[in-house]
Amino acid sequence: MPPYRIVFVCLGNICRSPVAEVVMRSLVADTQLGDRVEVASAGTAEWHVGKRADSRSLDVLSRNGYDGSAHRARQFEPSWFDDYDLVLALDRSNLADLLALAAPEHRDKVRLLMSFDPSAGVTDVPDPYYGGTDGFDHALALIEGACRGVLHHVAAQTAR
Ligand code: 4NP
User: Fold this and answer.
1) Which atom of ligand 1 is nearest to the CA of 47?
2) Residue 38: phi, psi to the nearest 5?
3) From the alpha carbon of 13, which atom of ligand 1 is closest?
4) How far is Cα 111 from Cα 99, in angstroms, rounded to an integer?
5) Gap between the Cα atoms of 71 and 61, Å rounded
6) pTM over 0.85, yes/no
7) What is the CATH number of the domain that holds 84?
8) Which of 28, 35, 54, 155 is the 20 to 30 Å CA partner of 85?
9) Cα of 160 to ligand 1 centre, how many Å?
10) Domain that includes residue 93, residue range
11) Cα 53 to ligand 1 centroid, rounded to whole Å
12) What lines the ligand 1 site, CB under 6 Å?
């Protein structure tokens, strides 16, 4: 069976989506799904391609027991809609950008990350780029909650 493939998408692929990628991969690794789910991330913009995650993302990850040091930023390519089963936008702006790139048959794959955690009561993981450390802590907390919801969804999708 081919792996189930998830890609998290924000604007720059240096702040939020790298955090989501690392958190999701860690959650998956703690389950039976470890070898059946692949996790990636990308940005809609090309500005930071090849760069490491923002130092504030690396910091919030390491303070919470994760390691984001392997990350290098990539730009989302429309051909990836063929490759991924779930394309998760970090905010509504990212969602709109992705839907503008997606052919009609791929639009169902494109979802807001926070829709997987209705209890959070928010739609977006706010862009923390221009703010302080607090924004990165808040982003991680939102992402951890939503990724648990994604894990349940993927477990149901891959159950045979
Ligand atoms: P991200 O944050 O989309 O969470 O990676 C941003 C990173 C860079 C910029 C904006 C947001 N920027 O304007 O360069």
Assistant:
1) 14
2) -110, 140
3) 5
4) 9
5) 12
6) yes
7) 3.40.50.2300
8) 54
9) 39
10) 4-158
11) 10
12) 10-16, 43, 47, 127, 129
Q: Residues near 129 by Cβ (< 8 Å), separated by ≥ 6?
A: 12, 14, 15, 54
Report d(CA 87, CA 145) in Å as an integer.
17
Tell me which of 51, 88, 127, 136 to substitute to probe ligand 1's pocket, judged by most ligand atoms within 8 Å of the beta carbon.
Answer: 127
Q: Which two tokens stand for residue 124?
A: 């977006």
As annotated, the active-site residues are 10, 16, 127
Taking only the tens of pLDDT, the chain with its 160 residues reads 889 999 999 999 999 999 999 999 999 999 989 889 999 999 999 999 999 999 999 999 999 999 999 999 999 999 999 999 999 999 999 999 999 999 999 999 999 999 999 999 999 999 999 999 999 999 999 999 999 999 999 999 888 6
User: What's the number of domains the chain is made of?
Assistant: 1
- Tell me how far apart the alpha carbons of residues 49 and 31 are, in angstroms, rounded to a whole number: 31
